[in-house]
Design brief:
alpha+beta; binds flavin mononucleotide; Nuclear Transport Factor 2, Chain: A; Pnp Oxidase, Chain A; 314 residues; elongated
Protein backbone atom coordinates (compact mmCIF):
# COMPACT_ATOMS: atom_id res chain seq x y z
CA UNK A 1 0.00 0.00 0.00
CA UNK A 2 2.82 2.36 0.95
CA UNK A 3 4.52 1.70 -2.35
CA UNK A 4 1.32 2.45 -4.23
CA UNK A 5 0.68 5.82 -2.54
CA UNK A 6 4.34 6.70 -2.76
CA UNK A 7 4.43 6.02 -6.51
CA UNK A 8 1.06 7.74 -7.08
CA UNK A 9 2.11 10.94 -5.30
CA UNK A 10 5.52 10.97 -6.98
CA UNK A 11 3.93 10.60 -10.43
CA UNK A 12 1.37 13.36 -9.83
CA UNK A 13 4.00 15.68 -8.39
CA UNK A 14 6.23 15.18 -11.41
CA UNK A 15 3.29 15.85 -13.74
CA UNK A 16 2.19 19.01 -11.91
CA UNK A 17 5.47 20.59 -10.82
CA UNK A 18 7.85 19.41 -13.55
CA UNK A 19 5.54 19.48 -16.57
CA UNK A 20 2.83 21.94 -15.51
CA UNK A 21 0.07 19.32 -15.92
CA UNK A 22 -1.83 20.64 -12.92
CA UNK A 23 -5.06 18.76 -13.77
CA UNK A 24 -3.24 15.64 -12.57
CA UNK A 25 -3.76 16.96 -9.05
CA UNK A 26 -7.53 16.44 -9.38
CA UNK A 27 -7.07 12.71 -8.84
CA UNK A 28 -4.70 13.17 -5.91
CA UNK A 29 -6.66 15.37 -3.51
CA UNK A 30 -10.10 15.20 -1.90
CA UNK A 31 -12.85 17.67 -2.82
CA UNK A 32 -12.38 19.57 0.45
CA UNK A 33 -8.58 19.62 0.11
CA UNK A 34 -6.81 22.35 2.11
CA UNK A 35 -3.19 23.42 1.83
CA UNK A 36 -1.86 25.23 4.88
CA UNK A 37 1.27 27.36 4.92
CA UNK A 38 2.95 26.41 8.19
CA UNK A 39 4.63 29.83 8.54
CA UNK A 40 1.49 31.97 8.12
CA UNK A 41 -1.28 29.49 8.98
CA UNK A 42 -2.95 30.65 5.76
CA UNK A 43 -5.05 27.95 4.08
CA UNK A 44 -5.77 27.67 0.35
CA UNK A 45 -7.47 25.17 -1.93
CA UNK A 46 -6.71 23.23 -5.08
CA UNK A 47 -7.35 26.15 -7.44
CA UNK A 48 -4.76 28.30 -5.66
CA UNK A 49 -2.25 25.42 -5.66
CA UNK A 50 -2.65 25.06 -9.41
CA UNK A 51 -2.18 28.82 -9.89
CA UNK A 52 0.90 28.79 -7.70
CA UNK A 53 2.48 25.92 -9.62
CA UNK A 54 1.81 27.62 -12.95
CA UNK A 55 3.20 30.94 -11.66
CA UNK A 56 6.38 29.27 -10.40
CA UNK A 57 6.77 27.37 -13.66
CA UNK A 58 6.25 30.62 -15.59
CA UNK A 59 9.20 32.20 -13.77
CA UNK A 60 11.29 29.02 -13.70
CA UNK A 61 10.39 27.08 -16.89
CA UNK A 62 13.05 24.40 -16.30
CA UNK A 63 11.80 23.67 -12.76
CA UNK A 64 12.38 20.16 -11.45
CA UNK A 65 11.27 18.84 -8.09
CA UNK A 66 12.83 15.81 -6.45
CA UNK A 67 11.18 13.93 -3.61
CA UNK A 68 14.10 13.25 -1.29
CA UNK A 69 12.17 11.21 1.24
CA UNK A 70 8.67 9.88 1.68
CA UNK A 71 7.48 8.58 5.06
CA UNK A 72 4.10 6.93 5.58
CA UNK A 73 2.50 6.23 8.96
CA UNK A 74 -1.16 5.18 8.72
CA UNK A 75 -3.14 8.11 7.31
CA UNK A 76 -0.27 10.54 7.72
CA UNK A 77 2.59 10.98 5.27
CA UNK A 78 5.57 13.29 5.10
CA UNK A 79 7.31 14.37 1.91
CA UNK A 80 10.71 16.03 1.89
CA UNK A 81 11.48 17.74 -1.41
CA UNK A 82 14.02 19.83 -3.28
CA UNK A 83 13.16 22.12 -6.22
CA UNK A 84 15.65 23.52 -8.71
CA UNK A 85 15.10 25.96 -11.53
CA UNK A 86 16.53 28.87 -13.46
CA UNK A 87 14.89 32.27 -13.13
CA UNK A 88 14.53 33.11 -16.83
CA UNK A 89 11.09 34.83 -16.77
CA UNK A 90 9.60 37.49 -14.44
CA UNK A 91 8.58 36.14 -11.03
CA UNK A 92 6.98 38.06 -8.12
CA UNK A 93 7.58 41.23 -10.12
CA UNK A 94 11.30 40.49 -10.34
CA UNK A 95 12.76 40.64 -13.87
CA UNK A 96 14.75 37.54 -14.91
CA UNK A 97 18.06 37.18 -13.05
CA UNK A 98 19.04 33.98 -14.91
CA UNK A 99 20.14 32.61 -11.57
CA UNK A 100 19.82 28.98 -10.49
CA UNK A 101 17.61 28.65 -7.45
CA UNK A 102 17.50 25.67 -5.11
CA UNK A 103 14.81 25.54 -2.44
CA UNK A 104 13.79 22.78 -0.04
CA UNK A 105 10.69 22.01 1.96
CA UNK A 106 8.51 19.40 3.58
CA UNK A 107 4.80 18.65 3.43
CA UNK A 108 2.86 16.77 6.10
CA UNK A 109 -0.12 15.06 4.46
CA UNK A 110 -3.36 13.94 6.07
CA UNK A 111 -4.71 11.15 3.84
CA UNK A 112 -8.29 10.01 3.40
CA UNK A 113 -9.19 7.02 1.22
CA UNK A 114 -5.81 7.22 -0.51
CA UNK A 115 -6.12 10.94 -1.32
CA UNK A 116 -4.64 14.04 0.28
CA UNK A 117 -7.28 15.85 2.38
CA UNK A 118 -4.96 18.37 3.97
CA UNK A 119 -1.30 19.24 3.68
CA UNK A 120 0.82 21.51 5.81
CA UNK A 121 3.74 22.98 3.92
CA UNK A 122 7.00 24.21 5.37
CA UNK A 123 9.61 25.57 3.01
CA UNK A 124 12.75 27.60 3.22
CA UNK A 125 12.33 30.58 0.88
CA UNK A 126 15.56 32.30 1.93
CA UNK A 127 17.52 30.74 -0.96
CA UNK A 128 14.85 31.88 -3.38
CA UNK A 129 14.73 35.45 -2.06
CA UNK A 130 18.51 35.67 -1.99
CA UNK A 131 18.86 34.36 -5.53
CA UNK A 132 16.25 36.83 -6.74
CA UNK A 133 18.05 39.61 -4.89
CA UNK A 134 14.98 40.53 -2.86
CA UNK A 135 13.71 40.50 0.67
CA UNK A 136 9.99 40.65 1.25
CA UNK A 137 8.52 43.56 3.23
CA UNK A 138 5.34 42.54 5.05
CA UNK A 139 4.60 39.81 2.50
CA UNK A 140 3.86 42.56 0.00
CA UNK A 141 5.76 40.87 -2.81
CA UNK A 142 4.46 37.39 -2.18
CA UNK A 143 0.75 38.09 -2.31
CA UNK A 144 -0.07 41.61 -3.49
CA UNK A 145 -3.65 40.70 -4.36
CA UNK A 146 -4.30 39.31 -0.91
CA UNK A 147 -3.42 42.39 1.10
CA UNK A 148 -6.43 43.14 3.27
CA UNK A 149 -7.16 46.66 4.55
CA UNK A 150 -7.13 46.52 8.33
CA UNK A 151 -10.17 48.60 9.22
CA UNK A 152 -9.39 48.44 12.93
CA UNK A 153 -6.09 50.27 12.67
CA UNK A 154 -7.35 52.51 9.82
CA UNK A 155 -5.67 54.32 6.96
CA UNK A 156 -5.64 58.04 6.12
CA UNK A 157 -7.66 59.32 3.21
CA UNK A 158 -5.40 59.32 0.11
CA UNK A 159 -5.85 63.08 -0.24
CA UNK A 160 -4.64 63.59 3.33
CA UNK A 161 -1.72 61.33 2.58
CA UNK A 162 -0.91 63.40 -0.53
CA UNK A 163 -1.13 66.52 1.63
CA UNK A 164 1.33 64.98 4.05
CA UNK A 165 3.78 64.25 1.23
CA UNK A 166 3.36 67.78 -0.17
CA UNK A 167 4.68 69.18 3.09
CA UNK A 168 7.97 67.35 2.67
CA UNK A 169 10.84 69.17 1.00
CA UNK A 170 13.43 67.19 -0.96
CA UNK A 171 16.06 67.60 -3.61
CA UNK A 172 15.75 65.86 -6.97
CA UNK A 173 18.07 63.12 -8.14
CA UNK A 174 18.47 61.24 -11.39
CA UNK A 175 19.13 57.55 -10.80
CA UNK A 176 21.07 55.97 -13.64
CA UNK A 177 22.40 52.72 -14.99
CA UNK A 178 23.32 51.25 -18.36
CA UNK A 179 21.74 48.47 -20.39
CA UNK A 180 23.88 46.95 -23.11
CA UNK A 181 26.12 50.00 -22.89
CA UNK A 182 23.16 52.41 -23.34
CA UNK A 183 22.67 54.94 -20.49
CA UNK A 184 19.27 54.92 -18.78
CA UNK A 185 17.78 56.87 -15.91
CA UNK A 186 14.79 58.44 -14.20
CA UNK A 187 14.04 61.36 -11.88
CA UNK A 188 13.79 60.23 -8.25
CA UNK A 189 13.18 62.24 -5.10
CA UNK A 190 12.82 59.14 -2.91
CA UNK A 191 16.50 59.22 -2.02
CA UNK A 192 17.93 59.06 1.46
CA UNK A 193 21.30 58.70 3.04
CA UNK A 194 21.26 55.77 5.47
CA UNK A 195 24.65 55.80 7.16
CA UNK A 196 28.10 57.33 6.78
CA UNK A 197 30.07 54.33 8.05
CA UNK A 198 29.56 52.28 6.03
CA UNK A 199 28.42 54.77 3.35
CA UNK A 200 24.93 53.44 2.61
CA UNK A 201 22.18 55.19 0.65
CA UNK A 202 18.76 54.16 -0.64
CA UNK A 203 16.47 55.02 -3.52
CA UNK A 204 12.91 53.88 -4.10
CA UNK A 205 11.84 53.11 -7.69
CA UNK A 206 8.45 52.18 -9.10
CA UNK A 207 8.34 48.80 -10.84
CA UNK A 208 6.47 50.28 -13.82
CA UNK A 209 9.46 52.48 -14.68
CA UNK A 210 11.01 51.59 -18.04
CA UNK A 211 14.40 51.97 -16.34
CA UNK A 212 13.46 49.45 -13.64
CA UNK A 213 14.42 46.13 -15.32
CA UNK A 214 17.89 47.47 -16.21
CA UNK A 215 18.27 48.94 -12.74
CA UNK A 216 17.22 45.73 -11.07
CA UNK A 217 19.71 43.69 -13.10
CA UNK A 218 22.58 46.12 -12.43
CA UNK A 219 25.34 45.63 -9.88
CA UNK A 220 25.84 49.42 -9.59
CA UNK A 221 23.83 52.59 -10.09
CA UNK A 222 24.49 56.31 -10.28
CA UNK A 223 22.71 58.97 -8.20
CA UNK A 224 22.95 62.57 -9.42
CA UNK A 225 21.73 65.43 -7.23
CA UNK A 226 20.41 67.97 -9.73
CA UNK A 227 21.47 71.59 -9.51
CA UNK A 228 19.39 74.77 -9.77
CA UNK A 229 20.54 74.98 -13.43
CA UNK A 230 19.15 71.63 -14.49
CA UNK A 231 15.41 72.26 -14.75
CA UNK A 232 15.34 70.82 -18.28
CA UNK A 233 17.17 67.74 -17.05
CA UNK A 234 14.36 67.01 -14.58
CA UNK A 235 11.77 67.21 -17.33
CA UNK A 236 13.80 64.85 -19.48
CA UNK A 237 14.27 62.24 -16.76
CA UNK A 238 10.68 62.51 -15.52
CA UNK A 239 9.57 61.62 -19.07
CA UNK A 240 9.31 58.31 -20.88
CA UNK A 241 11.65 59.41 -23.66
CA UNK A 242 13.55 56.48 -25.16
CA UNK A 243 16.85 58.39 -25.37
CA UNK A 244 16.97 60.66 -22.35
CA UNK A 245 20.74 61.11 -22.64
CA UNK A 246 20.66 62.48 -26.20
CA UNK A 247 21.19 66.10 -25.03
CA UNK A 248 22.94 65.29 -21.74
CA UNK A 249 26.67 65.55 -21.07
CA UNK A 250 27.78 62.79 -18.76
CA UNK A 251 30.74 60.65 -17.79
CA UNK A 252 30.94 57.11 -16.45
CA UNK A 253 31.75 56.33 -12.84
CA UNK A 254 34.46 53.72 -12.07
CA UNK A 255 31.86 50.98 -12.67
CA UNK A 256 30.30 52.67 -15.69
CA UNK A 257 27.19 54.25 -14.13
CA UNK A 258 26.30 57.53 -15.89
CA UNK A 259 27.16 60.60 -13.80
CA UNK A 260 25.58 63.76 -15.20
CA UNK A 261 27.91 66.73 -15.76
CA UNK A 262 26.93 69.90 -13.92
CA UNK A 263 25.07 68.09 -11.13
CA UNK A 264 25.44 69.49 -7.62
CA UNK A 265 26.86 66.10 -6.60
CA UNK A 266 26.98 62.61 -8.01
CA UNK A 267 27.84 59.19 -6.69
CA UNK A 268 28.16 55.63 -7.87
CA UNK A 269 27.07 52.87 -5.54
CA UNK A 270 26.96 49.09 -5.48
CA UNK A 271 23.45 47.65 -5.12
CA UNK A 272 23.40 45.44 -1.99
CA UNK A 273 19.68 44.81 -1.32
CA UNK A 274 16.46 45.08 -3.30
CA UNK A 275 13.59 45.22 -0.81
CA UNK A 276 10.14 44.65 -2.24
CA UNK A 277 7.46 47.15 -1.22
CA UNK A 278 4.59 46.05 -3.43
CA UNK A 279 4.62 48.59 -6.32
CA UNK A 280 8.15 49.83 -5.60
CA UNK A 281 11.59 48.42 -4.91
CA UNK A 282 13.89 49.97 -2.34
CA UNK A 283 17.50 49.69 -3.45
CA UNK A 284 19.99 49.74 -0.60
CA UNK A 285 23.39 50.65 -1.97
CA UNK A 286 26.96 50.98 -0.74
CA UNK A 287 28.67 54.05 -2.12
CA UNK A 288 31.89 53.36 -4.02
CA UNK A 289 32.59 56.77 -5.55
CA UNK A 290 31.35 60.32 -4.98
CA UNK A 291 31.85 63.74 -6.62
CA UNK A 292 30.74 67.08 -5.17
CA UNK A 293 30.34 70.09 -7.48
CA UNK A 294 29.97 73.84 -6.95
CA UNK A 295 26.40 74.33 -8.22
CA UNK A 296 23.62 74.81 -5.65
CA UNK A 297 20.96 72.08 -5.58
CA UNK A 298 17.44 72.19 -6.93
CA UNK A 299 14.69 71.98 -4.29
CA UNK A 300 11.38 70.16 -4.76
CA UNK A 301 8.18 70.71 -2.79
CA UNK A 302 4.55 69.91 -3.61
CA UNK A 303 5.15 69.42 -7.34
CA UNK A 304 7.21 72.61 -7.79
CA UNK A 305 10.91 73.25 -8.17
CA UNK A 306 12.84 75.95 -6.30
CA UNK A 307 16.29 77.45 -6.35
CA UNK A 308 18.32 75.96 -3.51
CA UNK A 309 20.56 79.03 -3.48
CA UNK A 310 17.74 81.31 -2.40
CA UNK A 311 16.67 79.55 0.74
CA UNK A 312 16.22 81.93 3.64
CA UNK A 313 17.63 80.83 6.94
CA UNK A 314 15.24 80.53 9.89
C1 LIG B 1 10.37 65.47 -8.83
C2 LIG B 1 10.11 64.04 -9.24
C3 LIG B 1 10.39 63.03 -8.36
C4 LIG B 1 10.17 61.69 -8.71
N1 LIG B 1 10.49 60.72 -7.82
C5 LIG B 1 10.35 59.42 -8.16
C6 LIG B 1 10.78 58.42 -7.28
O1 LIG B 1 11.25 58.67 -6.17
N2 LIG B 1 10.64 57.12 -7.67
C7 LIG B 1 10.11 56.79 -8.88
O2 LIG B 1 10.02 55.60 -9.19
N3 LIG B 1 9.69 57.74 -9.75
C8 LIG B 1 9.80 59.05 -9.42
N4 LIG B 1 9.41 60.03 -10.29
C9 LIG B 1 8.71 59.67 -11.52
C10 LIG B 1 9.64 59.16 -12.63
O3 LIG B 1 10.75 60.02 -12.81
C11 LIG B 1 8.82 59.10 -13.92
O4 LIG B 1 7.74 58.20 -13.74
C12 LIG B 1 9.61 58.73 -15.15
O5 LIG B 1 8.80 58.93 -16.30
C13 LIG B 1 10.08 57.29 -15.15
O6 LIG B 1 10.76 57.10 -16.36
P1 LIG B 1 11.04 55.63 -16.96
O7 LIG B 1 9.72 54.90 -16.95
O8 LIG B 1 11.56 55.88 -18.34
O9 LIG B 1 12.05 54.99 -16.06
C14 LIG B 1 9.63 61.38 -9.97
C15 LIG B 1 9.33 62.41 -10.86
C16 LIG B 1 9.58 63.73 -10.50
C17 LIG B 1 9.28 64.84 -11.48
Amino acid sequence: MQQAIDAFITDVWAAAWDRGEVEALDSLVTEDYVRVDKATGHGTGLAELKQEILAVREGFPDLTTTIDNFVLDGDTAAIFWTSKGTHTRPFLGVPPTNRQVVTTGSNILALRSGRIARETVTWDDSGLLEALGIRSLADAAAAPEQVVVDTMSGEPDPEVMKGFNRQFVTGVTVVTTTEGGVPKGLAVNAYSSISLEPPLVMVCVQKTSSTYPALFASTHLGINILSNRQKDTVSTFASKSSDKFAQIAWHGGPHGSPLIDGSSAALEAEIRERFQARTHTIFICRVRHAEVGEAEPMVYKAGRFYDGEELSAL
